[in-house]
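Protein record

Derive tokens from sequence
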Amino acid sequence: MMEFQLSVRIAGKESLDVRIANSATVRDLKRVIFQQAPYFNKETNGGDQNGAANDIIITFAGEVLADDSVLKDTSLRDCTILHAVPCRNPALCTDQACINEDASGKSDLIPVEQARKFNCTFYGYCKDVCAALVPALLRFSCSFCDSTNIVIKTATVCQEWDRICSRQVALPAHCYGRCGGASANLFFKCAAHPSRSDFDQIVYLRQVLLNEHDIPCVTCESVSSLVVDFLCDPTHVLCLDCFVQYGSILVTERRFYWQEQTGCVIPCPVGCRHGFIHDPHHFYLLGRKLYEKFKDFAAEERFVREGGIFCSEVACNTAFVDLADSVFASCPKGHRYCRTCRDKIHSGGCDEPVIWTKGILSVSYKL
């Protein structure tokens, strides 16, 4: 007999580890929780235990689990974290339970252009455990108290997906935690390793998508199950291997485009004007070393665009800000050079033959 090992948070006050057959129903799980949790025994105080067990609400991933649902047919798995609370308002229990009564597992929260199945639509990078690209599980937390004991109200938010992911828009919800809040944020968990806590989060990579329409890679023309979409022409996609090669070359050679809102971005390989990798977290796929190099390059570019200067002496390369109103800049270590051409102090304009002076030696050089 196959079993689930589940972790149940009881009304935010205690935690209970439960082993139960995966063929059991949610109603069976409620009875087990009621029998083993001291909190619920105190609540009933010797009353009707069967009735009290039925009044327990079990929430998971923004939904109230329906009593007749079989555990193996849900998205539950080993080490899944559930929340159980007593319902003191039967009308509220009924209303909330009807929020997600569709047993198909589909969700209005999934963008229609990406959706195929709820549990494999999203992908992210797991930094702490897997150090790899993994399927991502969609989860929700209260906007006010961060509790994950929350139920999402029915809403079609496909058009707001990017704003919701960046927490610019909150989802209508009901929090069963301490605050009773009415809105939620979303986050993503790794599907490749057992959950370690409610907030075992990973980085969501929104431009890594399932290749549902079998679009060939623009470089190698292979058809892969996952592709990187540059969000311009639907056919401008790269398979993961080609994306790693393409991104590695551009990062190593420091070939970026600059966007004011995003910063340094990598352009579409076809040359599309509006296609970019917008989120730098996608460069985790290039490996830790190149990702760190990209961050350094992006920070330097931002620093320079905000008026910062890097000393032109190769052995120095000191970062500083020089507010003096002068053609020439001076680094903290005494090196002076032209602000315009970034070379040593010279006479005349930068587009004319100039004489560089170093000590007592003079060298002629034409730009």
